[in-house]
């Protein structure tokens, strides 16, 4: 053995909790002891309350320790040298941890396990098997993806196979694959984790998309708030190109495909697909009117597949294991698994991938462990800043596109933000309107003006001014925004606002508030 | 502006080059200077108004130099749920500036950011490009102390 292998995650969550400093400290602890070690900067396993979670490879598998602080490095390192020995921070084999054991990891199968910058590692863990199947029968790719039931994970839940079919059938001199990695929703980080922990799966998914529809060029549009993801994606693309998996002959085939990373510039609305295309073209991120659909006239006017990171990163396993395998998971019209992101005031936050159908209660109480403040959960917002707030009374809602829609909510990109009973829901409603006002692209009036009027109206209600009348005004305004906005920024902002009002009316009743505030 | 010309040359052949160019300009100068806008417009065959429109649309691009340090505090929902609002108020008070402002001595600029993807270890912040999570009063004060340097 050339020395022991120690994993120190390079995922942004781990780094933000001190992983870079830990990696340096481990290296110096090793050099002081004249021990030969190899440090791998893996992705995160998704148990974020344990980050930074370090692992050591032993002959009995990997043993984890976490959350490790600088002061623990020496003792943890000693335990690692002892072959994964006892320590107060010892987690044991990560895959045996109940949080991971309960999951079904398909999209996230490799995240946290492999070295994200190593093409060899990717291949050793079943990487590029999907591409091999795709190359064996390129004409069947679109149908396989359609049969799997995979729907867009960016929020709208549009069937991925149908989108691809439209682009495949379009005639043009050039077509594009665009990956939407703008991930602006609060409470979401699954795209980031994939890009930082298993970037080749996204590259493979985009390559398969290119072959399926006849596109030779792809762009990954990553928000600028994600410098680590940008760095890892760039490195992985370079490695894939060097390894012959991108370029003029993908994996030795007659297909050409190449990729480029583009950095966003801090505009939430650029996550909306047409605004994103405008931005890629170097313009202001104004939402385009549809039709034409991007599938017909997308980037630079050419037919374009635009998909979320998770949609594309799920394609390789669909191709590898087959549509039937994937479709077997889930409920109703929500097939397969969803990487759910548990965030906010929660004891056990992180990434939980599971088949559709799990209830909010299981996710928040059983898996998430309730609030880290020790107070009762009052509300959860599901699906980002445009998603509805759910009260405990609706915690029996299963995670499923249709079930959430039936309760005036949405699963969006799969983020769940938990709030304890200290939250003021009128304030959250005001924030939703404020956010819309700040981020509106300005093209349509209901969104641009409506949101500003919305902030004012919520404030009036909060001050107790003509409560009934202003609630009617707010309701009206929300209707106008919902039905009159060009895109879902203005169109969905009513979800958090109206759900807060509907489920938490007491918070919009100012008399008790004034007393509470002294 | 020699550097600007060089950046433009490096992006020749790029599809949709304006955002990459603006990022490179801001990286080099710390902001997007007015005279760079003119040079970019000419090179890309755009009007100055068009380039200006793009610069002002995106939150990332600055038209004047930032402070020596930039502290971005996440103000989005998951960070609110973990006590972010109180931290934000503390930062404003300690620095004596509101969000979007720079301290009088040019030491630090305080900016809001809407989610850093660290929502499971919130509240979070970015200081001069470095990310920090699980921020409490003590950690915030340590970050503010860093900006004294
Ligand atoms: C304001 C707004 C922001 C959005 N942000 C994102 C985003 O960050 N990432 C994403 O994948 N989709 C986002 N979407 C959805 C996209 O418009 C689009 O539905 C998605 O990229 C399609 O890919 P999918 O079918 O794979 O989900 C956003 C939509 C709106 C209206
Ligand atoms: S909401 Fe603050 S990091 Fe996501």
Task: Supply database-style keywords.
heterodimer; A: about 525 residues; alpha/beta; Glutaredoxin; Rossmann fold; Ubiquitin-like (UB roll); five-stranded mixed sheet; 22 helices; disordered C terminus; B: about 150 residues; alpha+beta; 2 domains; four-stranded mixed sheet; 7 helices; 4 strands; about 10% strand; binds FE2/S2 (inorganic) cluster
Q: Care to describe what's here?
A:
The complex is a heterodimer of chains A (518) and B (149). Chain A is α/β, with parallel strands linked by helices. Chain A folds into four domains: 94 residues, Glutaredoxin, CATH 3.40.30; 209 residues, 3-Layer(aba) Sandwich (Rossmann fold), CATH 3.40.50; 91 residues, Ubiquitin-like (UB roll); 93 residues, de novo design (two linked rop proteins) (Up-down Bundle), CATH 1.20.1440. In chain A, 42% of the residues lie in helices and 15% in strands. A five-stranded mixed β-sheet of chain A has the order 2-1-3-4-5, with helices on one face. Chain A has a five-stranded mixed β-sheet with strand order 13-12-16-14-15. In chain A, strands 8-7-6-9 form a four-stranded parallel β-sheet, sandwiched between helices. In chain A, helix 6 packs parallel to helix 10, helix 6 packs across helix 13 and helix 17 packs antiparallel against helix 21. Chain A is globular. With 149 residues, chain B is of the alpha+beta class. Chain B folds into two domains: 56 residues, no CATH class; 78 residues, Glutaredoxin (3-Layer(aba) Sandwich). In chain B, 46% of the residues lie in helices and 12% in strands. Chain B has a four-stranded mixed β-sheet, covered by helices on one side. In chain B, helix 3 crosses helix 4 and helix 6 runs parallel beside helix 7. At the A-B interface, helix 1, strand 12, strand 16 and helix 17 of A face helix 2, helix 4 and helix 5 of B.
